[in-house]
From TrEMBL:
Organism: Geodermatophilus maliterrae
Pfam families: HATPase_c (PF02518), HisKA_3 (PF07730)
Protein name: histidine kinase
Keywords: ATP-binding, Kinase, Membrane, Nucleotide-binding, Phosphoprotein, Transferase, Transmembrane, Transmembrane helix, Two-component regulatory system
The protein's Enzyme Commission number: 2.7.13.3
GO MF annotations, alphabetized: kinase activity
UniProt keyword annotation of Manganese present: no
Keyword ATP-binding found: yes
Known catalytic reactions: ATP + protein L-histidine = ADP + protein N-phospho-L-histidine
Residue ranges of every copy of the Histidine kinase/HSP90-like ATPase domain listed in the record: 308-398
UniProt-listed PANTHER family: NITRATE/NITRITE SENSOR PROTEIN NARX-RELATED, NITRATE_NITRITE SENSOR PROTEIN NARQ
C-alpha cells in the first residue's frame, strides 16, 4: 500500500504535475499504446489487409504523437497536422494507433480552441458525416454499407468533439461559479466594511458627546479656579499646582481624544500626530506635577524608531507613571529608555517604602501594557523587586524594527 501511494504521488506531482507535463505524458502513453497495437497486428483496418510490414505505421504514429505536444497552445494547427498524418496512414491501410491520436486531437481542439474555431470544427464534423454518407451510397449503392460509413465517421470525429465540448462547458460553468463566489465574497466584505465604519462612527460620536465633554468640563473648571488669585502659602501653592496638573492632564486628554475620534472617522481629514518619544519630557513633567519625584536615568540617545514602536513605548511609560502616581503618591520614580542591539528597553522603578501583598495596578493597566508589548513581538514584566529597596518595577522590551528618518533623543 505504501508503494502504491508513493507511485501515485510521483505520478500526480512529477509526471502529471503541470500542463506541459500532462501533454508530454499523453503523447508518450499514446505512442506506447499505438506501438503495442501495431505489434498486435491491428493495422490495415481500412483495406482489410496489411500493406507490407505493419511497422510502416510506426512513422505516422510518431509524427502524430509529436503533433499532440502542441494540442494545448495550438490546438487547430495540431489537429490539421494530425489529419494530414491520418490521411497518410489511411493510404498505408490504417492503424488503430492513429485513431487514438486523431481522437485525442479532436477532443483537445474542442476543449482549447477559440469559439470561432469550435464553430467551424462542429460544422466540419457534420459535413464529414454527410460526405461519408454520400460517398458510401455513391460507391456501393447499399444502404447497410452507407449507414456503417456514416456511423464510423460520426464515432471518429463527432464523439470526441461532443466530449470535449461537454468538458469545456463544465469548466466554463465552474469558472462562472468561482467568479460569482468571488463577487459574493467581495460584496460581503463591503457590507462588513460598512458595518465597521458605522460602528466606528458611533464610537466616535460617543467619545465626543460623553467622554470628551466631561474631560473638557474638568479642564474648564480647573482653568476657572486658576483664574482667581491665590494667597501665598504652602497649602495654597500645593492646591494651585494640583489644579495646574489637572488642567494640563485634561488638555492632553482632549488632544489625544481628538486624535482617537479622527482615527475612528477615517474620512475626517488629516489625523493628529500619534504620541512619540519626543514628547517624553512633557510626560515626565506631568508626572512631577502629580507629585512624583521622577528621575530619568542617563541613557544614550534613542536612535530613530518606527512610529508603532515609539507609540507603544510612550503608552507603556505613560501607564506605568500613572500607576505610580496612584499607588505610590509622592514616591521616587526612575525611568529608563535605551536601545541595546535591536531592542528598545523600558523600565520604570517606583519606591514608596511599602511592600504589600497586593499588586499595584493589577487590572486593565498591566494587561494593556502587556498587550502593547506583545503585539509588537516584545516582552513585558511587572512585579516587586527582590532587593531591600521595596521597588515596584515595570519592564518592557520592544523590537526596534526598521528605523525611520526622524531622529529622537530622550532628554531629562
Amino acid at each position: 500500500m505504501g508503494v502504491v501511494a508513493v507511485l501515485r504521488h510521483v505520478w500526480l506531482t512529477r509526471v502529471r504535475g503541470t500542463e506541459r507535463a500532462r501533454d508530454v505524458s499523453d503523447a508518450v502513453l499514446t505512442a506506447l499504446a499505438g506501438l503495442v497495437l501495431v505489434a498486435s497486428g491491428l493495422v490495415g483496418i481500412w483495406n482489410g489487409e496489411p500493406a507490407g510490414s505493419p511497422w510502416v505505421h510506426a512513422g505516422p504514429l510518431a509524427v502524430g504523437c509529436l503533433a499532440m505536444l502542441g494540442k494545448r497552445r495550438h490546438p487547430v494547427a495540431a489537429l490539421l497536422a494530425g489529419v494530414a498524418v491520418f490521411a497518410v496512414d489511411v493510404a498505408l491501410g490504417g492503424s488503430v494507433g492513429l485513431l487514438l491520436v486523431l481522437f485525442d486531437l479532436v477532443y483537445s481542439a474542442a476543449l482549447h480552441a477559440g469559439p470561432r474555431a469550435v464553430l467551424r470544427l462542429r460544422a466540419a464534423s457534420w459535413a464529414l458525416v454527410v460526405l461519408s454518407l454520400l460517398v458510401g451510397w455513391t460507391a456501393t449503392g447499399e444502404l447497410r454499407i452507407t449507414v456503417f460509413l456514416g456511423l464510423q465517421s460520426f464515432a471518429l470525429v463527432t464523439t470526441p468533439l461532443w466530449w470535449g465540448l461537454a468538458v469545456r462547458r463544465e469548466r466554463e460553468l465552474a469558472a462562472l461559479a468561482r467568479a460569482r463566489a468571488d463577487d459574493l465574497r467581495d460584496l460581503a466584505e463591503l457590507r462588513a466594511a460598512e458595518v465597521r465604519a458605522e460602528e466606528r462612527a458611533q464610537m466616535a460620536r460617543d467619545l465626543h458627546d460623553a467622554v470628551a465633554g466631561n474631560v473638557s468640563a474638568i479642564a474648564l473648571h480647573a482653568e476657572a479656579a486658576l483664574a482667581h488669585p491665590a494667597a501665598p502659602g504652602g497649602a495654597a501653592d500645593r492646591e494651585r499646582a494640583a489644579l495646574e496638573a489637572v488642567r494640563a492632564a485634561g488638555l492632553t486628554s482632549l488632544e489625544e481624544m481628538r486624535a482617537m475620534i479622527l482615527l475612528l472617522r477615517a474620512d475626517s481629514g488629516p489625523l493628529a500626530a500619534a504620541p512619540r518619544l519626543d514628547r517624553l519630557d512633557g510626560l515626565l513633567a506631568g508626572a512631577r506635577a502629580a507629585g512624583l519625584d521622577v528621575r530619568l536615568v542617563p541613557a544614550r540617545p534613542v536612535p530613530p524608531l518606527p512610529a508603532a514602536v515609539e507609540q507603544a513605548a510612550y503608552r507603556i511609560l505613560q501607564e506605568a507613571l500613572t500607576n505610580a502616581a496612584k499607588h505610590a503618591p509622592g514616591g521616587r520614580v526612575e525611568v529608563t529608555a535605551a536601545v541595546s542591539g535591536d531592542r528598545l528597553g523600558l523600565r520604570v522603578d517606583s519606591e514608596d517604602g511599602r511592600r504589600g501583598t497586593a499588586v499595584p495596578g493589577a487590572g486593565l493597566g498591566l494587561l494593556t501594557m502587556r498587550e502593547r508589548a506583545e503585539s509588537l513581538g516584545g516582552r513585558f514584566a511587572a512585579g516587586w523587586s527582590d532587593d531591600a529597596r521595596s521597588r515596584w518595577s515595570v519592564a518592557a522590551e520592544l523590537p526596534v524594527g526598521v528605523p525611520v528618518e526622524r531622529p529622537v533623543e530622550v532628554g531629562r
